Amino acid sequence: MKKITLSLMAFLATSAMATTITLYQDKDSGAIYTKPGPNRVKLGEFISKDEVYKTTQEITQKMKKETKATEVFSKVPKLKINGVHYLGFTHINYEDDNKADINRFETRRNYLQLKAYWNKKDYARITLDTHQDDTGDWKVRLKYAYLYLDNVLPYTGVEFGQVHRPWIDWEEHHGWLYRSIAKTFVEEHEGAHLTNSADQGINFKTKTDYFTSEIGLFNGEGYHGKDKENTKLSFEWRLTAHLLGTGKKHVHTTSDTYADISFLGQINPDFKNSTNDKSSSDYKTDDFKWYAIHAVYNQPMFLLAGMYATSKPSDKIYDGHGWSINGEFRPVNKWSILARYDKWTDESGNNDTDRKEWIAGIAYKYNKNVKFIANTFVIDPDNTQSDDKESKYMLTTEVKW
């Protein structure tokens, strides 16, 4: 800052020392003269335009050298960088008296994303995500890394690489808006737990006013699955009817009205699960299939969404069915009340087991970058063989920049 100030002072001093010329104007004819004379009025002292330009350029170059600015180089004309953080505190209360209650501060997710655009619509993307493993170590893992090309087919773009799977990202922007406190029903461990959000593959994304879809082929086990030695690929899809014609629009839940019905699912004829050790009795492959239907209606005052899902693998891995409903009520500006109920009937064992969870909370949007959430989260496996029921009380801060 001192160097910049000194440079500006030098500029002013140089300007003061620059050669000036005094001009005079004839009162009657308006002619301009450089010398005084009868009927002439002094206009003032002036500096040559060329001299001002030359002096300005010299000072600008000098300031650049003194400030030593760092330049960013790229082979594309536009780089877009953004981040997302889910920060919180959780109290866990176990119904089992033999388990101690837990209090902990949490950094649940930290995403860092970079997009490199070479035109307005085509880009390459990489997203990194922090993750804490069972040992307590923090790791950075690759969430997305793909090339996106727009309009490779009519109304259709394509992602290739480690890409979005067809459903979860869409629901998190249209139906369930609180990924910071719980995953969507089809991903949540205490819900259906059928899929996750990213995988290696190719995803064709179609957008029209009244219909959108994502259809692709993937490895099938997910971006942090244990086995990548696929002999067959997973076919996955989302087909959505936008009843109010908002398919092309990036909707905003607090200002837009939309009504959507979706059919989604996965057919994976060579699904690997449980372990990467092929000699283990837990290592299994299976024809893994699941299907779901989802509906959502949103207007600025409230959102209501629901889903039914079913899964029927041939040897009963992940066999089951269930449903979920969630809503958000926005009574006043910046404040929201949220609730969700999930129920999944697991039919993979000898006895059917119902997994249930309730979520309820309140949210306050501090500004466009920060949201605060307080909620309860009750997990209740309705199984006579288990007492592992728990309640969570959560405080969360969503940060987006």
Descriptive report:
The chain is mainly β and 401 residues long. The protein folds into two domains: 2-67, no CATH class; 78-400, Porin. It is 10% helix and 53% strand. The chain contains three helices and 19 strands. The chain has helices spanning 2-17, 49-67, 168-174; strands at 20-26, 32-33, 40-47, 78-94, 102-117, 123-132, 138-153, 156-164, 198-207, 211-218, 234-242, 258-273, 284-299, 302-311, 320-329, 335-346, 353-365, 370-382, 390-400. The chain has a 16-stranded antiparallel barrel. Strand 5 and strand 6 form a beta hairpin. Helix 1 (2-17) runs antiparallel to helix 2 (49-67). The protein starts with a helix and ends with a strand. The relative contact order is 0.10.
Chain-wise SSE layout:
Blueprint: H1 2-17, E1 20-26, E2 32-33, E3 40-47, H2 49-67, E4 78-94, E5 102-117, E6 123-132, E7 138-153, E8 156-164, H3 168-174, E9 198-207, E10 211-218, E11 234-242, E12 258-273, E13 284-299, E14 302-311, E15 320-329, E16 335-346, E17 353-365, E18 370-382, E19 390-400
Antiparallel strand pairs: 1-2, 1-3, 4-5, 4-19, 5-6, 6-7, 7-8, 8-9, 9-10, 10-11, 11-12, 12-13, 13-14, 14-15, 15-16, 16-17, 17-18, 18-19
Total DSSP E strands: 19
Placed side by side, the strands forming the largest sheet appear as 4-5-6-7-8-9-10-11-12-13-14-15-16-17-18-19
Helix content: 10-25%
Q: Count of helical segments?
A: 3
CATH superfamily of the largest domain: Porin
**What are the segments in which pLDDT stays under 50 over at least 5 consecutive residues?**
274-278
CATH-derived architecture of the largest domain: Beta Barrel
- SS strand fraction: over 45%
- Strand/helix succession: HEEEHEEEEEHEEEEEEEEEEE
Q: Give a short account of the largest sheet.
A: 16 strands, antiparallel, barrel
User: At the third CATH level, what is the topology name of the largest domain?
Assistant: Porin
| CA radius of gyration | 31 Å
How many separate domains? 2
Rough outline: elongated
